[in-house]
Amino acid sequence: MSLLHDSPGLRPSELPPDSALERTLREQQTLLDNAGAGIAFIRQQRVVRCNLRYAQIFGYEAPEDLCGQRSESFYPDTAAFRELGRAAYPVVSAGETFRVERIMRRRDGSMFWGRLTGSLINPKDTSEGSIWLIDDINEQKNAQVQLDAAIWEKQILLDNAMVGIVYLRNRHLTRCNRHFELMLGYAPGELEGSSSRRWLPSEAVWEDVGTRCYEPLAQGLAFEGELPLRRKDGTPVVCDVRSKAIDPSNLSLGSIWICMDITERKQAQTELIKVHAELEWLVAERTQQLSETVANLHREIDDRKLDQERIYWLAHYDPLTGLPNRTLLAERSTQAIEVARQEQTPISVIFLDLDHFKHVNDSLGHRVGDALLVQIARRLRAVVREKDTVCRLGGDEFILLLPGANAKGAARVAGKLLEASRQPYQIDHHELTMAPSMGIAVYPDDGTDFDSLSQSADVAMYRAKQGGRNTFRFFTPEMQAHSVRALQLENALRRALEREQFSLHYQPQVCIATQQVLGVEALLRWEHPELGMVSPAEFIPIAEDCGQILPIGEWVLRTALAQLKSWHTQGLTLPTMSVNLSAVQFRQPRLPELISRILADACLSPGSLELELTEGVAMDDPRMAIDTMDQLHALGVQLSIDDFGTGYSSLSQLKRFPIGKLKIDQSFVRDLDEDANDRAIVSAIIRMAQALGMQTIAEGVETRGQFDFLRDQGCDQAQGFYCGHPQAADQLQIYLQACRKAQQSGMSAGQRPNPANAFTAFLR
Ligand code: C2E
Ligand code: MG
Ligand code: MG
Q1: How does 692-705 read in b/e, with b if 16+ C-beta sit within 10 Å?
Q2: Is any ligand 1 atom within 6 A of the Cβ of residue 523?
Q3: 642 lines ligand 1 (CB under 6 A)
Q4: How confident is the model over 93-120, as pLDDT tens digits?
């Protein structure tokens, strides 16, 4: 029997002292007053008694304040009270203790959590009341609620975190969130209890991570790093991992690991790096291409520049000698003329042509010819000043432009050029001498522009050539007229043969001793419908220059020999036909064959032909000349040297020529009557010829005095107006017949015939 049950209003102090009961009650009261829990005796739903703690829990100062208080007031509302009653009844009525935690209400209306423990005093009789213990567990409950909330929040966090969160203890998973499982491809809960080795790719990695994380975790620091993990299916996952010990001082409590799948990010990064690398490579390649393109461009520009320079060079320079060409010369001349005009200064132009250069090309070949031109160009350049221009026009023609030079200066330069040309040129094993013929024109007298100046110089050069070559001439206005005529003649000459404008005249060659006509010289005549009679002295050199001399010369040979044959057929015995052979003809290849063919065609013996050569034929290449002469001589053809005394034949050469006769030039014969010098020269030539075993014939014998002098000096023959003019074939035929008749009668009469009579009788 409990105190509460037995005497509801009885206080221990009210009991008789020292009785056992009293003592028991006192003990109980002490127990109640000092109990940590509130204790109340409830009967008929009202508080019969309670301890101090009970009162305090509900907000009363003393237990008495609660006595009679309805127990319903301790609950938030009636429904809560009834509900408790319904829950408690079956338990307590079964004699058991009912325990529950409920929200209760204090005196001031505030709610709190209480833990209730109730039991019936007599389970068989509820009316006896019940005892209720209450603990104020509000704080504990609140703490629990907060803890639950925290746990809940944590759970939400765990469940919704976009990172894997793992709790490990002794490197075994105690818990993880769903994300971690999904990340590694595991079913919910599948990893629980697993060793972390399960999601690490190898034992080595696992051990390495274990060692590395230990120190920071033990120091309370985070372990951070990128770890290679492995999914359930074995595929790799790269994670950014961060872990911390739950209690650094006690690592056995485990650690939390937060893992973020950065595989994609890694891949993206790798991809990015790759793309970057590719980009850089592309940029590098593009840069390379660009620099190559730039280099190519530069090269192309350089090439173009070079091309342009080359084109310019080719357009302005002579490729063989490197000298300026006509175009550049014209440009420079125009500039120089402009300066000369402003400053009133002279300019000289020298037109230079090499004498007989063609023979070098013909005989030694173009390679030697070219090498010679290069050396000549160098020599020309060396003679003039820096500001002068030496230009090669082409072939063997050069023009020198000498700004500031007057006639005197130009003559000095021309002299130096002649001087320089005396030195032989060495080409391979050939030693060659090459003389120039030069014409000089001076600005402004001989021309005020480049064309007129070069034309004037060209004309003057032509004159220098006519004047015996290896010399120079100044331009004179008369030359201009002449050169125009030369051009006219050249054109007309090209058609003269086919238009049969040529004819031959024949001039007798008489034996001085017997006055017999020993032969005739065929002399070419050209009658042009407009130009009239043109002297061979004028047109032969032109025909030689333009090459027409070859067909013309052949025509002369054939015509003259045909004529001789015709006279022979008519019974006129004329031993020789003399034909002039130009140097150009003489040098034509296979001349002896041509001559013998013509002789054969005319059915004449070679001895009836005499070829008159000039001294010049042997000048350039004596060896070849001698060779040709020997061949002609071997044929039986007679050879004579025409115009002897005007050329440069040396005695040493002369004696090697198979020459039968020297024709003393008429310039020595003309003044024999008056000029003692000429008389001395003529007699010297005669004696020299005699010494060499050659015959002599004097040309241009016009007077009896000349004839007599020649006879006295032992000259063999005479040719000239005194003995007979050159005449057409039919006229000469009459002359020959008359001569023969006169001679026959004179001889038979034993008289010495008077050649003048005999000849002149038939001239008129
Ligand atoms: P050449 O061979 O010395 O001919 C002699 C020239 O003297 C001829 O002039 C002739 O008419 C002239 N002549 C003759 N006797 C006298 C005289 O007593 N006094 C004067 N003053 N002159 C006289 P032509 O016919 O005008 O010929 C001039 C030159 O033309 C010739 O000089 C010769 O070198 C050349 N020639 C003439 N015909 C031919 C030819 O068929 N072929 C070649 N290659 N040259 C020819
Ligand atoms: Mg002659
Ligand atoms: Mg002559």
Answers
A1: eebbbbbbbbbbee
A2: yes
A3: yes
A4: 999 999 999 999 999 999 999 999 999 9
Does position 4 have pLDDT exceeding 50, yes or no? no
Which residues fall inside 5 Å of ion ligand 2, going by CB? 580, 612, 642
pLDDT tens, 393-452?
988 999 999 999 999 999 999 999 999 999 999 998 888 889 999 999 999 999 999 999
Q: Is 669 in the pocket of ligand 1 (CB under 6 A)?
A: no
Q: What is the mean pLDDT of the chain?
A: 89
Contact indicator for 389, 329 with CB cutoff of 8 Å = yes
Q: Which of 122, 80, 120, 121 is nearest to 101 (CA)?
A: 80
Atom 2 (ligand 1): residue with closest C-alpha? 580
The pLDDT, as a whole number, for residue 72 is 93
Q: Is the CB of 643 under 6 A from ligand 1?
A: yes
- CB 665 less than 6 A from any atom of ligand 1: no
Residue nearest to atom 7 of ligand 1 (CA): 700
Is residue 755 within 8 A of residue 707, CB to CB? The reply is yes
* Residue 38, ligand 1, Cβ within 6 A: no
Q: Find all residues with CB under 8 Å of 734, minimum gap 6, and list them.
A: 762
Counting residues of the chain whose pLDDT is more than 70, the rounded percentage is: 94
Ligand 1 pocket mutation, candidates 501, 578, 580, criterion most atoms within 8 A of CB: 580
Give yes or no for residue 750 having a pLDDT over 60.
no
- Is the distance from CB of 22 to CB of 12 less than 8 angstroms? yes
Closest CA to 25 of 54, 50, 1: 1
> How far is 38 from 60, CA to CA, in rounded Å?
12
pLDDT at position 555 is 98
Cβ atoms 465, 438 nearer than 8 A? no
Kindly write down the DSSP assignment for every residue of 46-57, as one continuous string: EEEEE-HHHHHH
